[in-house]
Amino acid sequence: MALGKAIFFDTNLSRPKGQSCASCHDPAAGFSHPDPAAPVSPGPSKAASAFRGAQSIPYTCSAGPALRPDAAPPGIMMGMFKGGLFWDGRASTLENQAQEPFLNPLEMNNPSKAAVVAAVHRSAYVKLFRQIYGRKLENEAYAYECIAKALAAYMRSPELNPFTSKYDYWKRSQAVLTQAETNGYALFLFTARPSARPATASRTSPTSATRTSDAAQPGPPLLRLAPALNPDGAAFVDRGLGDVLRKAGVPEEQAAKADGMFKIPALRNCELTAPYTHNGFHKTLREVIVFNNTRDEPTATYRPPKWPRTSTATCRPCREPSAGSA
């Protein structure tokens, strides 16, 4: 865990230097984006910024299954998918996930795996790195995988997944909920069940955090990026899971059903992790709740969704407390 933590907080692993994993996953913000006033995290240079918000790492990344078709009974989630890491579910393991930000030009902007490995070899913790992973670290591919393994070990550790929220203590009969908390929990469970859900309540899927309206699409930071970073310019639309499925070879008819879908994040520490949703559009938890509960009302003022078929899909509970969401 100590090695992974050292890598996680190392600001020498970006180009230019100055950006670490913790820059976008700040412990003080529940290991998520540290600036609630900005929709997404900036990159290591002023010319770039991420096009999705930085997810909170604890609980979400600790024990998630790989992306796979949902096994729900027919008619509930037929044709849908669940699992995976990142907002769109594209990474199957923490080790896979940990390798991507280093090479992403909008995040840590390294030109190659070799550049990351070389920076680690120059670090103050290189002796520990060699002690743990042996002498084969001159092999760049192997060394890069070891860097990801160390990061994954840290992200799985009790430091990020302590299960010490009031909810956890309450489940172990070590705390008592207030009346307001009891009422909120009852409301949460009631509206999460399809048989009891009001007709106007939030309708999402296990891979969908928001309805796919213009309000849930990436905002100006991405649209202003240079053509090399965003060739589509102002016409860019984030298809989320839909494009992941296309790249995986899923037939277009099925992939299109997932256009605009994103993962539901874990709810522990959510009071610390503003802004919310995949592109940081919502600044408060109240905004998220109001959006989900009113988006389908005839009087709602939101723009029409990009993919109406996706945004009106009705499914089973997405934030079961037993799955680490509370």
What portion of residues is helical? Answer: 25-40%
Write the H/E string, N to C. HHEEHHHHHHHHHHH
CATH level-3 fold name? Cytochrome Bc1 Complex, Chain D, domain 2
CATH superfamily name? Answer: Cytochrome c-like domain
Number of helices in the DSSP assignment: 13
Tell me the distance between the termini.
Answer: 26 Å
Mean pLDDT: 81
- Tell me, what's the shape? globular
Question: Can you describe what's shown?
Answer:
With 326 residues, the protein is mostly helical. It has a single domain (2-162, 193-323), classed as Cytochrome Bc1 Complex, Chain D, domain 2 (Orthogonal Bundle), CATH 1.10.760.10. The protein has helices spanning 2-8, 21-24, 94-103, 113-121, 126-133, 140-155, 166-171, 179-192, 220-223, 241-247, 252-255, 285-294, 308-311; strands spanning 68-69, 81-82. Strands 1-2 form a two-stranded antiparallel sheet. Helix 3 (94-103) packs across helix 6 (140-155). The longest helix is centred in the middle third of the chain and has 16 residues, at 140-155. Mean pLDDT is 81; it is low at 193-215 and 313-326.
